[in-house]
Amino acid sequence: MNSPKPYETIPVLLETYFEGLHKADSAMLSGVFHPHAQYVSATPEDYRVLSFDEYRKVLDQRVPPASNGETRNERIISIETGGPTLAFARVEMTMMGRDYTDFLTLIYDQGRWAIMAKIFHYEITSQGD
Question: What is d(CA 32, CA 44) in angstroms, rounded to the nearest whole number?
Answer without folding.
Answer: 26
